[in-house]
Amino acid sequence: MTGLIETIVKALVDHPEDVLVTQDFNHGSITYRLTVHPEDVGKVIGKQGRIAKAIRTVVYAAGHSKSEKITLEIM
Description:
Keywords: Cell shape, Cell wall biogenesis/degradation, Chaperone, Cytoplasm, RNA-binding. It is found in: Cytoplasm. This protein has 75 residues and is of the alpha+beta class. It has three helices and three strands; from the N terminus they run H-E-E-H-H-E.
């Protein structure tokens, strides 16, 4: 799943080398934390959060097929 998130986000940003995805396991759920270069935060979030919402939709759909509860946080 981290590879999926990195692939999507690296295509959007100007500094792909600064993309970092970490994961935490909490009581049956997985939290992914996405960290990008400060200049790229706006590109990942998008206007009115549309790009962030689209990324979350793809990640949640991939997790749903595995019956996992997934959360994506953009740091």
